[in-house]
Design a protein that fits this description.
The protein is of the alpha/beta class. It has one domain: Aldolase class I (TIM Barrel). 47% of the residues lie in helices and 13% in strands. Strands 2-3-4-5-6-9-10-11 form an eight-stranded parallel β-barrel, surrounded by nine helices. A two-stranded antiparallel sheet has the order 7-8. α8 links the parallel β9 and β10. The structure holds zinc ion. Zinc ion (ZN) binds next to loops.
Length: 358
């Protein structure tokens, strides 16, 4: 076993140790998008069950939902929800006995103010607790020019590094969209953009590596969401070429880049394994866990549909209180997520590999 880390939310050096443990151990961690305490608890339960570390992630929309769809100011809700969710995870993660990375998902140019507001919160949290609120934020400026993308990421990373935070950047384009950020899958679209150029990765490495820790969402044909097979072709060897170029230019060890696989839902198992071999330590999963939650809730409702129409059965006079108690169907949804994540931990080779001290 590699280095051991204290259970709970990991940031700074501990986060880097968890990333290193994954890459050296030949496994990756699922990054699961959450929208409330239900999904967070399900992710923590799943990780504890698999004895694996895990990444809890909020999109801007997920953060807004966490604070409440009815909250009057949606921009404020995106900040407050992300803070509230992080506090929930900080309080509970350690008790589940695994290492938990806290992360935010795609932030495009319009969402930079969201990230800057979160950094303000993170700096305040750091003053109080000696660690940041989040382990890492993602900046997805893949729609901008390479220079603007990397330049802006450098500016933000400098600020983050001061409070032991990492950044995730995106080079090339992940097809589909995640919560309003992203690109339509258009078969006539410029497919070259779906595949990251190793030279771009080299440029980012040169610029960002001196400033702090960063990870790269590189595109190798991956898409958000689950579609009919055949639309896009996964080419993980692109990741291998990026690693090799940085290694030869900078004389590093093998797989110097910490790579992220977006749009992991619905991917072929063999391509997942191949990507992990090329230094992917994080695979985002959202669509598949959303479906796992919905499927179990749907199944539960189908078993006693009358309880969702009547408080008391009109024929038998039987009260349905115990059936329509929201805990019943929400727990069904949580169980679906826990189960689906066992499959993800297994696909990523992470079962039993938690770096948390036992
Ligand atoms: Zn993504």
């Amino acid at each position: 076993m590699g280095e051991q880390v204290k259970a709970g939310v990991v940031t700074g050096e501990d986060y880097i140790k968890v990333v290193r443990a994954a890459k050296e151990g030949g496994y990756a961690l699922p990054a699961v998008n959450v929208v409330g305490t239900n999904s967070i608890n399900a992710v923590l339960e799943a990780a504890a069950k698999a004895k694996s570390d895990v990444i809890v992630q909020l999109s801007n929309g997920g953060a807004q939902f966490y604070a409440g769809k009815g909250y009057p100011d949606s921009s404020e809700a995106k900040v407050l929800g992300a803070v509230s969710a992080a506090q929930h995870v900080h309080l509970l993660a350690e008790r589940y006995g695994v290492c938990v990375v806290l992360h935010t998902d795609h932030a495009n140019k319009k969402l930079i103010p969201w990230i800057e507001a979160l950094l303000e919160q993170g700096e305040r949290f750091y003053e109080l607790h000696g660690k940041p609120l989040y382990s890492s934020h993602m900046l997805d400026l893949s729609e901008e020019t390479l220079e603007e993308n990397v330049g802006e990421c450098a500016r933000i990373l400098e600020r983050m590094a001061k409070i032991d935070m990492s950044i995730e950047i995106e080079l090339g384009v992940t097809g589909g969209e995640e919560d309003g950020v992203g690109h339509d899958i258009d078969e006539s679209a410029d497919n070259a953009k779906l595949y990251t150029q190793p030279e771009d990765v080299l440029y980012a490495y040169k610029t960002l590596n001196p400033l702090g820790h960063f990870s790269v969402a590189a595109s190798f044909g991956n898409v958000h969401g689950v579609y009919k097979p055949g639309n896009v072709k996964l080419r993980p060897e692109i990741l291998k070429h990026s690693q090799a170029l940085v290694q030869s230019e900078f004389g590093t060890d093998a797989n110097p880049l910490d790579l992220v696989f977006h749009g992991g839902s619905g991917s072929e198992k063999s391509k997942i394994t191949e990507a992990v071999g090329y230094g992917v330590f994080k695979m985002n999963i959202d669509t598949d866990t959303q479906f796992a939650f919905a499927k179990e809730v749907g199944g539960y409702v189908e078993t006693t549909p009358r309880a969702f129409k009547h408080q008391i059965d009109p024929d038998s006079g039987k009260p349905y209180k115990k059936v329509y108690d929201p805990r019943m169907f929400m727990r069904a949804g949580e169980s679906g997520v826990v189960e689906r994540l066992q499959e993800a931990f297994a696909d990523l080779g992470a079962v039993g590999k938690s770096a948390a001290q036992s």
